[in-house]
Amino acid sequence: MIIEEYLYYIILPILAVSVLLVFCRFVMGPSIADRVVALDLLITIGITLIAIYSIVYDQSTFLDIAMILGLIAFLSTVAFSYYLEKRNRKKREKQQREEQQDE
Amino acid sequence: MKNRFLSNILLTFIWVAITGSFEFANYLFGFILSFIIMYVITKGRGSAKYFKIVPKLIGFIFFFLWELLKANLQVAYDVVTPTFYMTPGIVRVPLDAETNLEITLLANLITLTPGTLSLDVSDDRKVLYVHAMYLKDKQDFIDDIKNGFEKRLLEILR
Amino acid sequence: MLIAILTGFVFAILLFFGGKNIVSGKLALLPALIPLSLFIYFVRFIKDISNNEIVHKTYEWIPSLGINLSFTLDGLSLLFSLMITGIGTLVFAYTSAYLKGNNYLDRFYGYLAVFMAAMLGLVLSDNLISLFVFWELTSISSFFLIGFNNTSLASRKSAFTALGITGLGGLLLLAGGLVLGSITGTYDISEMLQHKDLIANSDYYLLVGCLIFGAAFTKSAQFPFHFWLPGAMKAPTPVSTYLHSATMVKAGIYLLFRLSPLMGSTNFWNTTLTIVGLITMVYSAFHCLFRTDMKGVLAYSTISALGILVFLIGLGTQESFLAAGVFIIVHALYKATLFMVTGVVDHQAGTRDITQLSGLRKVMLPVAIAGILAAISNAGIPPSIGFVGKDLIYEGTLHLENSAILLTAFAIITNVLISYAGYVAGVKPFVGKLPEKFEKVKFPHFLLWFPPVLLAVAGFVFGVFPFLLQDSLVKPIVQTTGLNTSEIHLKLWHGFTPVLGLSALTIGSGLLLYFLLKPSKKLEQFIAKFDKLSPKSIIENVVLGFTNFSGFWTSTFQSGYLRNYISIIVLFLISLMGFTLLDGTTYKVDYSSFARITVYEVVILTILVLSIGLIVFAKSRLAAVVSTGIMGYSICLLFVFYSAPDLAMTQFAIDTLTVILFVLVLYKLPKYLNLSDYKMRIRDGILSIAFGGLISILALEVLAQPVNSEISDFYAKNSYLLAHGKNVVNVILVDFRGADTMVEISVLAISAIGVFGLLKLRLKSVERFQK
Amino acid sequence: MKTLILRTASNYLLPILLLFSIFILLRGHYLPGGGFVGGLIASIAFVLHAFANGLKDTKKLLKFHPGFLMPIGLAVSFLAGLLPVIGFDEPFMTGLWMHDTIPVLGALGTAMFFDIGVYIVVQGVTLTIIFTISESA
Amino acid sequence: MEFLLAIITGLLYAAGLYMMLRRSMVKLIIGLIIISNGANLLIFLLGRITKGHPPIIPDGSKVFTEIYADPVPQALILTAIVISFGLQSFAIILIKRAYQAVKTDDLDEMNTIEEEIK
Amino acid sequence: MTQQLLLYPLLFQLFLSILLMFFWKKIETQKIISIVGGFIGVFLSALLFYKVWHYGTQTVQAANWEAPYGITFVADTLSATLVLLTAIAGMAVSFFSAASVIPARLRFGYFPIYHFLLLGLTGAFLTGDIFNLYVWFEIIIISSFVLITLGGEKAQIEGAVKYFTLNILASIIFLTAIAVLYGLAGSLNMADLAVLVPQLKNRHLVEVTAILFLVGFGIKSAVFPLYFWLPASYHTPPSAVAAIFGGLLTKVGVYALIRIFSLIFLDNEFLNDLLIVIAVLTLFSGAIGALVQKNVRKIFSYLIICHIGFMIGGLGMFTKVALAGMVFYLIHDIMVKTNLFMISGLIYRIKGTNNVKLLGDLYDKYPKLSLLMFIPLLSLIGVPPFSGFWPKVSLIIATLNEKNYVLLGAIILGSLLTLLVVAKLWSEVFWKKGEELPVRKHFLYFKQMDKARKFQFLAPIVMLAGVSLYIGFGAEHMQQLSNRIASELINNQQYIDAVMPQNN
Amino acid sequence: MSNILIIILSSLGAIFILLAAIGFVRMPDTYLRISVTTKAVTLGVGLILASAAVYFDDLSVTSRVLAIVLFIILTSPVGAHLIGRASYFSGNKMWGKSITDELDGKYQPNSHKLSSGEEFEDEDEEEDKTEHKKSDLL
Ligand code: NA
Ligand code: NA
After folding, report:
1. Domain extent for B24
2. Pairing of strands B127-132, C67-73
3. How many structural domains compose chain B?
4. Spatial distance between the Cα atoms of A85 and A93, rounded to a whole number of angstroms
5. Which parts pass through the membrane (chain G) (predicted)?
6. Mean pLDDT by 10 residues, chain C (771 residues)
7. Whole-prediction pTM
């Protein structure tokens, strides 16, 4: 019983504070990359939240969700990186075109 | 080598089945037990590499964990204290690792240890660009990686 | 009788399919045999009817609605049937010559046949609903007849106007009939007569009266709905002859006549009819003075005659009904003649402009005879039947108890003007000098001049021998009103009475007027100045205003702006919800039933709220998308906390995929601009907050209600034992509610196909239309 | 974005994810999971592969157009639901169960096949959508 | 907690609607996503929430022995989520296609077909 | 096997859709499957109708879980009738699609999606479960989205965005309503809800729930002031698609309203009044909207709205006579509106445009076709004894019984304006001397078609015109049918008993 | 015994995560933020999951925990690599006190090809473009 309470009153708040901190950075940005990393981080901390929660409620089922989170959270990072690259290329092509026109 | 490993696992399962205790400790115990057994029964029959790698692998894991912990503490210190002591920079690290797997593992391990971040591998796979937080001497840094992670990793993989 | 009616329809259908062959060439006269045989059929009934018999037939049609095809043949309907078929025969025959060589003669006959059948059905129906059915069919067929020259804009407009006015009347008739039905419990007029008291004492009496009047006045072109009739003169002359003088326009008269015994003898009924009839007859008779188109003259005089009929029915005495009955016959005979005459003139001389026409007797004597005879009958000069008719009118007005003198005076004025109209149309073209340009006018075809002559002569035969009509038709007609008929004696000569004096006065004034006032363009232009005040233009303006309003209303609501649509819908929803939810409810929520709040919940909720804020206020599209992702993941965590692992997994996977989709699409889009201004944002914000607030209140209220967990208990009990699964959510998905899932995967498949088609299918210009 | 690191990682992740998706699919009747999530994970595996190696490679790997999975999956689910109607004059979707249970999967019944159909459809759908978009990007 | 969730649900509806009322099509779709989440949460909330007891029959028992969360709303939401995934993907592609066809993301410029009546 | 007869029309459509997907690229095969399938569908639906007519309401408990635990499918007379009409209209449009939809569209899944749409319609009519109804609605929506956007022309996309958004909004409101209903009553089975909801203490909340349903379904049935999506989009897809949309999509909304209000939310004075107000404004807005339009299909679109008003009015009065009128109108309207949009397609193929200003001459050049097209127009106006007339009789009687003169006036005005709109249409499109339009390259005009295609074009129009004629001239049968449906709707106990016999 | 282990593991894990979060907020540039968080979080997650494994003391849980940790170890550095790289492309500046950037100028601007800096060669621009067009999902 003590463990559950320890986790509940000590660990969960620490994690919660971490989540909030990360979210602060998400709000602050400044670049999209920071936001994407924040998102990734939030999910990863979410995994720990779920893990602790599953201990507190003695429901190991929740770890399954953590598993899925761990597996596919990564994909949104991949997607956003892809976006950033593509967008960057597009910008550069546009710049080049304009430069060529200037010449 | 793969066969050995598989046999090892198989034996572990047999052990667990026999004992009927499905606890983690029992698996671990079964694994060690069957490793020893296999070491004994295949001793001197040529393909002893497997038995050399496993201890190295275990050693590597501990090395990795130690590095992880050590550098985490370093960063932690930097993070909690008001001023930063960082001297960051992106460094070009020439690679001895050749195969995709080698390079990827190396890069990932470098990233996972604090203070360093593998940014990219050159297209000709000769150079790894690493972002480092505490960069005092470039050559020292490169040597650390080459003699530490890369060497140990390649020992295991090759 | 049903067969009699159906004959026309069947014939029409035949014409539509093989028409060209039937009516082309020499067989063109054939169609006339149809009305002729029907005429003979109806003539056979004269004897029975004059013996006070009534023929009644009922066929079941829609018993569930109490609607039957029941037909009655009594004096009134016999008169109309004879007119419809008799004049119909002549018109059919006349048409074969008039429209000879017209490409669409088959169509024309088809319409005429439909019209004739419908008109027969109308006058024979005893059931008010079936009467309405035929009433509408006459409107539709007349639409086609008026618009026969369909390439002419004026024709189309007139057809449209006529249909609009008579269509409105028809709907009023339907409503009136249905009210009568709901009062009396039957739609059969003969049965209704037995419940006369119910009607008179009903709360609906006024309503029914107004509805019936609306129907009759529109159909019979009473002021202020009269203007469609002059417009309808755009139709070929046979149509004007048949529909717009002899038959269709009299349908309203027929209706009033028919319903008088049922609804008449009240102040409302009689006064309204008298006044409307009076206004109509005087107003339009006056208008005859200002027309130069022969048909225009005749149209206004027809309206005036219809006004006289309404007026007479409104008087509601035995004498006035007698006068009305006779006048129907009189008018049919002379007006049909005059129209046909006009048609011949138009057909041969190529114009109907009365100011140009004269002396045509030299080239078409029989036509001139018909015209002059008809004009005489029209003017009420003895020994024509017109004289009899006019006398009866004066007798009807003179013997009134109230305002006899005044009404008689109006009748005289009307008659004077009408007789003027008759001279203008029936005499003026034929007398005087034949202008040069008409010297080469050819003598008309036999079938063009014979029908009018026949009709005109008939007017004199009946004038000389009025007893021919007395027992056979006139008495039975009056009989249908339920009044005493024993004292009716039609005579040409009554001796020297005041009425005779009035007749003489009328004839004299009419002739005088004709000699003094010649129709001219000036007069026509003079009256045109008052067009703005005419009911026609007033109603046209109203219609125009209505159309403009329609455009305004439609484009206001259908503005093209999606956000307006959404706003209106949500506004509608929240005003209704707000009205019911906040109105008088005591807002009571049992907070004690709510679970305690924990730190991590607060953190997740905070993040949820903040991420929503970020989405709403994001400056970049990608930031909005990332924030949406965070929102989704927070909700996913909520699902974890509240025991929904399956949900959490699915939501998480789907959110990730959605992010990927967005990312794949986004970088192709243009800049993410904030396009709305400050005011708009405030407005939308208020609307949104109101919406969200109501949803929150609703949720809280529902949460305070007791729970019924019968169904989930069943699942909990049986999920493993009967459905062999322990994850109840999954068992529900694949078993208890598997049908949902089957549909759901179909939805997914469809959307994938849709996406595939949307992106891969680009129609090339060739493909766009070619098959 | 075909970086070496991502490519290598994705080559190892693909089988792991696929295996994992089947695992999630099969356990759905007893524990969280099932056809939907399973199918989504499987498609995520392929999407990841496509990100790392390019669409062409992934398509080559799949051998046929993923859209083809949709009618197949639908047919599997449909037949699983139809079997009781055709064979036993029971209502559509009535669960039919084998008497004996199978070690890993537990009881074997039409519901399982239904869920497998779902799994296939979801994969077909997700992959079709994502592949189509990236092809026309 | 239910109280806060009810407020959040309302907030989701409000934010979703607000986004739908913007002129950008991307915002419109995001709005739809938000409001769908709101609806899901509403089903979840009104089906009553339970902490830490997923509707999964524990190992070794054949029926529930203790309290459990109502599985019905969960199944409904699952269906709704998957359906809205289908719709959302279609919508997202629609943005793309609309941009190709109409060359704008601005909804106000997408009413040529409706203007012709005026 | 006959026990499950109720599900056959449903399962058969699903089967067809899946089968068609397997023949993805073989569009000729797809055409044959669709048409043959259409006939079989009519046959199956007719069987179902026969059974319901003679043996009363049929039910099937899907997956064999007794109500209210599983999903119940119910065919009372109303449902069976609508399923049959769907099948008939569906078959006609299959035919018409085979002739009129261009191959490019067919190659991208037109037929599978089309049959999914029919599946959705059939399912919506047959389900006895409120959430299942939502799911069917979704399949209808998504397949209609796909059909409306297939081809991706600019106009299509613009229309689709509005169509899409507003319909999804409707779905979300519907879902919200389900959430509240489940929160209050704890059940989803409509018969069960019919028992539970009247017992609920908090009537305010029940009323709010009803309003949510009203608005959700109201959007789908395109009533005032929720109809915007319809005129914005119905003229953009191929005419075959518009035909099935025009005939059936809004009717599903109406059906859902009927179901909900006759079964669950009974006798609420406020709601009934509200429905009547909505009906009046719907009639009015639709009619005047049609009056000012210049495109044949837009005119028809507004007429759809207008005529929805008749049905909503009937529902609002909720007497037996009114309901009978409403049901009769529903039956009539499905056939006529489907046909009208096919006719618009025919006109388009003849002249290459649907713009009223440019059209003309049809009566001169194609007199027989014109008269063929005139039949549905007559039905539309409700010229007696064509089909639109009889339901109006019942509706007017009902307004008189209820002394609802405003609605009476609206019905008369709506009818009159419909008459005028059609007259105007006729005079502009058929009578007027049309402008000489430049001959379009790559355009297949009607006169250029071969006999077989002409037949495919005209057969469905003739068929539906025939059905309309039957409805009008055989009004007695329809009236009996409507009366029976009306009495079933008024007495909801028989529905409840059929679904949950164990309750007695 | 196991309780103490759980407390130790979870406390350490939570602290590392907290540190990572603080670091994430405090670090001055994107690369540093990525760098700090990847490992701290990996370690933290691993520790906390380990505590769960100890708590449940059940093979299936343990294997799941192992799986999760393995996944994270496998994926998070890859993610860091990708986002770091992307961040470099989008021109995120390094912190002012950074001492060197050997990556500067090594990327081909259009193809994003990365040179090792040993054999820098001028690639044909046109070839780049065509390749870009072909690559679909890249
Ligand atoms: Na490191
Ligand atoms: Na990392």
Report:
1. 1-46
2. unpaired
3. 2
4. 12
5. 6-25, 37-56, 62-84
6. 74 69 64 82 82 82 82 86 87 82 79 87 88 89 86 86 88 90 86 84 87 90 84 83 82 88 84 89 83 83 89 84 84 86 83 78 80 82 78 78 79 83 80 78 78 81 76 76 72 72 80 78 73 77 86 83 90 91 65 71 89 89 87 92 91 90 80 75 94 93 87 86 86 90 94 90 63 39
7. 0.91
**Amino acid identity, position C516:** L
Residues B114 and B130 in one domain: yes
What tens digit of pLDDT does each residue of F26-74 get? 889 999 999 999 999 999 999 999 999 999 999 998 888 888 898 999 9
Residue B133 contacts G where some CB pair is shorter than 8 Å: yes
Total domains, chain G: 2
Residue G83 and residue G15 share a domain: yes
Task: Give the SS3 label for residue C401.
Answer: coil
Which of the following CATH numbers is that of domain E2-53+66-113: 3.30.300.30, 3.30.70.20, 3.40.50.300, 1.10.287.3510?
Answer: 1.10.287.3510
Q: Which two tokens stand for residue F226?
A: 């929720």
B42 and B68 assigned to the same domain = no
Task: Please provide the DSSP assignment of C402-415 as one string.
Answer: SSHHHHHHHHHHHH
What is the per-residue pLDDT for E117? 37
Q: What is this model's ipTM?
A: 0.91
Determine the pLDDT at residue D96: 80
| B91 and B151 belong to one structural domain | yes
- Token pair 């019942």 is found at F394
Which residues have C-beta within 8 Å of that of residue B123, sequence separation ≥ 6? G113, G114, G115, G116
B130: which strand partners? B91, B118
Q: Are G56 and G120 contained in the same domain?
A: no
Burial of C681 (C-beta count, 10 Å sphere; 0-12/13-18/19+): middle
Positive or negative CA dihedral for C81, C86, C87, C88?
positive
pLDDT digits (tens, 9 = 90+) for E21-52: 988 888 999 999 999 999 999 999 999 988 88
CA distance E116 to F292: 11
Interface E:F, Cβ pairs < 8 A:
101
Shared domain check, B82 and B7? no
Q: Give contacts of E51 with chain A, Cβ < 8 Å.
A: 57
Q: What's the sign of the alpha-carbon dihedral F362, F364, F366, F372? A: positive
F vs G contact (3+ beta-carbon pairs below 8 A) = no
- Distance of CA B130 from the midpoint of ligand 1 (Å): 9
Q: Chain A neighbours among D 103-132 (CB < 8 Å)? A: none
* Interface contact D31, partner E, CB < 8 A: yes
Pair B67, B42 in one domain:
no
Q: How far apart are CA B127 and CA B129, in angstroms?
A: 6
Based on the domain organization, do G108 and G81 belong to the same domain? no
Paired with F73 in beta bridges are F60, F127
> Ligand nearest B135 Cα, by number?
1
Helix (H) or strand (E) holding B120: strand B116-121
Distance C653 CA to ligand 2 centre (A): 21
User: G31 and B86 in contact by Cβ < 8 A?
Assistant: no
Q: Which domain holds residue G138?
A: 102-138
Query: Do G51 and G116 reside in the same domain of the chain?
Result: no
Q: Which of C610, C626, C653 sits opposite A68 (nearest CB)?
A: C653
Ranges of each domain in chain D: 4-136
- B153 shares a domain with B78: yes
Q: Does C724 touch chain F (CB under 8 A)?
A: no
Q: What is the C-alpha radius of gyration for chain B, rounded to an integer number of angstroms?
A: 20
Q: Do chain F and chain C touch with ≥3 beta carbon pairs under 8 Å?
A: yes
d(C-alpha C174, C-alpha C176), whole Å: 5
